[in-house]
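This part of the workshop introduces the protein records we will be handling. A record pairs a protein's sequence with a compact description of its fold. As an example, a complete record with its sequence and its structure tokens follows.

_____
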Amino acid sequence: MIKRILLIFVMLAVSCYIVVAVTLFNRKPNDKICEGIELTVEDSVNYNFVTKKGIEELLKSKRLLPQGKPAGSINVRLLEETIAKYPFVSEAQCYLTSGNKVNIDIRQRIPLLRIMSDNGDNYYIDNKGEIMSVLSQPVHVAVATGFIDKKFAKGELFALGKYLQDNPFWKAQVEQINITPQKEIEIVPRVGNHILFLGKAEDYDKKFSKLQTFYEKALNHVGWNKYQRISIEFKNQIIGTKKEK
């Protein structure tokens, strides 16, 4: 009888412990006060478009700055939606940490080209093909000038920007892109005093591959300043116009 009573007592004690433990571990830390935010930029290259100060100012302007608020009152989904509207943010994820802070993981919008059109437009095309506002700090990307409307910028020029981003050699070589009234492409390279003429905005891989071979096998031997214009418009030939003496 005594053993049965002891067994019942032990079982009740264990049951109470489990209930208390589950309650404690699952209870939301509503009484915890948020001590601030931690910002993590996940991109391999941090352009400093998004800063902790900038995000704090954004949240403060929307009355959503979590610092000093009870953790239970912080809506992380609302924070994500608000931060995602920031001009230079592609995606944001927010969550509460064990250190009573809100961690914000951000992916930036990466500019591919700067557009300075003859109609006065001045903006960037990002790595999603969307328009970005001009930033206060300079960004070292190729500048596209000439007869550019936004449809052409988000289409053919975006494709060119993606190609340059994925090709380290030409990304380093291309300084300026000019679009003619016929929507043909001229390129000003960083090395050499010539103009590269690509013709229509298509077949970038074939054209630049052919041009790179010409650079390596011809210009390295005859000199980089021998031509004033090099055309790779046609599939099976490269036409070089020599400088007048």
Observations:
- The radius of gyration is 29 Å.
- The CA atoms of residues 69 and 94 lie 15 Å apart.
- Confidence is low (pLDDT under 50) at residues 19-27.
- The longest strand covers residues 89-96.
